Amino acid sequence: MFAGAATRAGRPVRLWVLDEHRYGLLPIICRVWGLRGVRVHAPYATRYQWGYLHEALEVDGANRLELLFTPCIDQDVHALFLQQLGATEPAALHVVIQDQAGFHLPETDPRLPRNVRLLPLPPYSPELNPVEKLGDIVKDRICNRLYPSLLRLEDHLLITTAAPTSKIGSRSSAPSLA
User: Fold this and answer.
1) Number of domains composing the chain
2) What pLDDT digit, counting tens, does each position of 24-79 carry?
3) 95: domain CATH number?
4) Three-state DSSP class for 84?
5) How far is CA 28 from CA 101, 146, 149, 153, 156, in A?
6) Which residue segment(s) compose the domain that 54 sits in?
7) 44 in a structural domain
8) Distance, CA of 116 to CA of 98 (rounded, Å)
9) 148 is a domain residue
10) Is 178 part of any domain?
């Protein structure tokens, strides 16, 4: 395959798993433990403002975590995130495993960086993508809380993604388009 040829040529190969998650000011309500007879209250405010967190975890090598906060999601933003991945080590070949979302670039798209190759996961198989666990960890840490703005929520998401890195990887950068 393409990774074998790059390795034989002495070119390093980086393997990434990629996913996106939507976050927003409408709080995530989760069950919590409470004392018997004491009703637990979770804060709630109906506010509709959303953003998207693009994340890629390097599963072989430096175990970096690349993040990108964006106000929307489409093929142009996905191309920008793939360029960010390719720029982490320009001399390396970056193999990206991703699901088959409609906004992901096809292998033949001219916006795809020259040092990035895509491997699609089978349809409807999120359990095969290890970076999905990051979304669960993040949701657990931001549930039952209110944030005054998306910027404050994004700041908390950065702190949250830095904490579970012993289980998942280490964060190297987190630019934002907003």
Assistant:
1) 1
2) 876 777 777 888 888 877 777 777 888 888 999 998 877 888 999 999 999 999 99
3) 3.30.420.10
4) helix
5) 24, 9, 15, 12, 14
6) 2-173
7) yes
8) 12
9) yes
10) no
